[in-house]
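User: Please run a holo structure prediction.
Assistant: Happy to. Please share the sequence and the ligand.
User: Here you go; the ligand is zinc ion.
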Amino acid sequence: MPIVLGLLIAFGIVYLFTRKGAATRNCRWRKDALGDKGSLRKYRCAACGAEAFTASKGPPDTCKKALS
Ligand SMILES: [Zn+2]
């Protein structure tokens, strides 16, 4: 049954990507009020040291380490 085999492989790939995405969400964002720029709020990740600015309420939902 090749179709079932293909589905299993597809699920396996999705599972791997989901786990990889989850690993980058371990960031613990700490507000850094001293670094605020106007309406942008500065957050610093206590886990990986990444810094990010957000215009919306709350910390970033993704880690910016991969971008730097
Ligand atoms: Zn981080």
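The chain is about 30% helix and 20% strand.
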